[in-house]
Amino acid sequence: MPADVFRSQLSDSAVDGDWGDGESKTVLFITSRFPPVASVGATRIRKFAKYLGQFGWRPVVITGAGPTSCSSDHSVRGAVDEETVLDLPRGLPVYRLSAALDDLPTFLSRGYAARLYPATQWLGMDRQAWEDALLWRFRRVHDWGSFPDSGVWRLASTVALALRLHRHYRFRAIFSSGMPFSDHMIGMVIRRLLRRPWLADFRDPWVEYIHDTQWNSPSRRRLTRMAEAAIVREASSVISVNDHMTRRFTSRYPGRSRGKFVTITNGFDPADFATGAERVPNQCFRMLYAGSLYKTRNPASVLAAFRRFIKDTPGSQQHARFDFLGRPGPFIKMLEAASDEGRVRYAGMLPHREALRAVAEADLNVVLHPKIPGSACDTTTKIYECLGSGRPILAVVPLDGAAAAELRGFDGVTLCDPDDSVAISRGIAEWYHRWLAGEDRVSRSDEALAPLTRRHQAGLLARCLDAAVGAKRYSEQGTR
Hints:
This protein has about 475 residues and is of the alpha/beta class. Helices cover about 40% and strands about 15% of the residues. The protein folds into 3 domains: about 240 residues, Glycogen Phosphorylase B (Rossmann fold), CATH 3.40.50.2000; about 35 residues, no CATH class; about 180 residues, 3-Layer(aba) Sandwich (Rossmann fold). It contains 16 helices and 14 strands. Helix 4 packs across helix 5.
């Protein structure tokens, strides 16, 4: 399949020198989540691309076809945030694969129907009839072969493009980020062909992934374990977004060097909050949840706690509001319940910059992680952006999980068990009364927040790349 290419453009206000001193080493990024896709996964990769040049590394990106829908789309790859492209360095090479790869069954059924229908029109089998007859068959084969996900159908095209680009850019290393975990499968194949160091970045745990049930059969579970083990064996470094995930990898693969497993957390970019304007106090107490809701991330407990708080706290009916931003998942009716009389509102999806502005203006930001098997590994980007906003946080998260460990110790954070509606309601009431008294200021030092910034994390990634390339060079010299 042919690939489209664009060079990212920045406004005149962009920081110069993102590509370093002109001696930058090139690293191939394999990622399905990339601007203008509006997802937290795309944010992590975008910030790596933004700052890596300052540490001597120049990314070259291979990603999927650009999404075409508007920012209100509720799908993961369909939502668009065009402003995020402006955050990328000048001249960043981004190569996009054919859009046909995102829906192969439709592409194939249309192509074959166009060839077959002229010979069968006289039988009443027109083009649409052929498309309908072929589509479900192609889709059945497509879905059956989509391991670990549908992104695996991009493998051949991505590998061919990577080999072609390598002749021009001479990649020093390869970097893949998942989920989708097919990006790691593609990265592993390219590593074997190019014989370059490869870093596998796990934004989510694979064998413990809680948001997808596609491998719940015994055969899929075995395939998942085998595939993850192959990636750990082949990768120069296995990067996790929190220490909990890193420890899980270390315990699952005790025969591997502990230095192979590295933590580079999610984080926030201070530049996203640098408005220069003084925050204007809200006229009402405004709670905000900014993020996606899934079947496994249910807002029922925090909504019940908010309603309890409204019922038990005099005056709160007129002075408190709970807003939701992002993908509502299957809970849109729950968020728009008439019984809340407008105190709970779903405000739709906003571009990342506007969403962070809302986070910085909120009186209480809500972080919500479910208390289910596997959720202890979860540390979403939102917890770091809420920390960076300087505003109070109500963290409804497993108290023994990675999110609680990351948030614990910072000023202005209230931790609550997701199953304890009474404690959640009490936490809301505490911040409401502090807001009434004008005592809701939060103190988080720049020194404490520095390790959570995107630039710092890009520096850690550059250090991993340098180590992998150095180890490769040393190995090659040692075999001569």
